[in-house]
Specification:
Layout (H helix, E strand, L loop, with lengths): L1 E2 L2 E2 L7 H14 L3 H13 L1 H4 L3 H17 L3 H21 L4 H14 L5 H21 L4 H15 L3 H10 L8 H14 L5 H13 L3 H12 L9 H10 L8
Antiparallel strand pairs: 1-2
């Protein structure tokens, strides 16, 4: 099957592996304890199914879940690095799988979260490349558009020092605008309304910085009515604090 000029390669597991992956997918949608159970389930079966691309990207995803579940910086660093290695292994199995590219991008970002500015800028370039590939392979994943929106927003709001560092690293440093960020966040919302409180807060923040105060207020109020879920992260509370001035409600 062809889509977006790229061939989609399907690898359909069967038997015990298919049951294991289905169980992993269910546990991934649960709370922190269920996510941890899913992580242990995959780790316990790594030796047997480590040759499967479908297994490996789920293991990378589980490392991302564990990263979010701990506050310890060293644990976060370990989960991110090990998850990145599993995501890279999944990509080596086959580079034409949207999930492999998505989770490689996610773990690339997480693995440099506590690194230097230069490391973050370098990883940002790789992250964007793999998100673009993921979207080219499957253009209906709201998480990819949310992550692209985050990338665009962060690039558009780089400070002077960060822009100088980016210019020193690349002949053509990354560029983006708040309009690009807003477009991606709105696409994520369109694909899955209420997908994430954070998406709606970023839509509000983009409108605010673009001077669209009425739209920003409406999106902030909508976001505050949206339950927090596993797609939200530490950015959620930061954005709420920044945007609460737009409403008369106490967050």
């Amino acid at each position: 099957m062809m889509k977006g000029g790229l061939q989609l390669v399907t690898d359909v597991p069967s038997g015990e592996l298919a049951l294991l992956l289905a169980q992993s997918d269910i546990l991934h949608t649960g709370d922190a304890s269920l996510k941890a159970e899913g992580f242990r389930l995959l780790l316990d079966n790594r030796a047997e199914y480590g040759d499967s691309r479908e297994f490996l990207w789920r293991l990378a995803r589980a490392y991302s879940d564990m990263y979010k579940s701990t506050e310890d910086k060293q644990e976060k660093k370990t989960y991110a690095q090990q998850g990145w290695e599993e995501a890279e292994a999944a990509l080596r199995k086959n580079g034409l799988n949207a999930e492999c590219h998505k989770w490689f991008a996610v773990l690339t970002g997480l693995s440099t979260q506590h690194e230097s500015m230069h490391s973050k800028l370098k990883s940002s370039h790789i992250l964007k490349e793999h998100l673009d590939r993921a979207v080219a392979l499957r253009d209906n994943d709201p998480m990819c558009f949310y992550l692209l929106g985050r990338w665009c927003y962060e690039v558009a709001t780089l400070d002077w020092l960060e822009k100088k560092a980016a210019a020193a690293l690349y002949q053509s440093p990354p560029t983006s605008t708040l309009h690009d960020a807003l477009e991606n966040f709105l696409k994520a919302e369109e694909l899955s309304p209420g997908f994430s409180k954070t998406v709606r807060l970023y839509i509000a923040q983009c409108h605010r910085e673009l001077g669209n105060i009425s739209e920003a207020t409406n999106w902030t109020e909508l976001a505050l009515k949206t339950p927090t879920n596993s797609n939200d992260d530490e950015e959620t509370s930061k954005l709420e604090a920044q945007l609460q001035v737009l409403t008369h409600r106490k967050i």
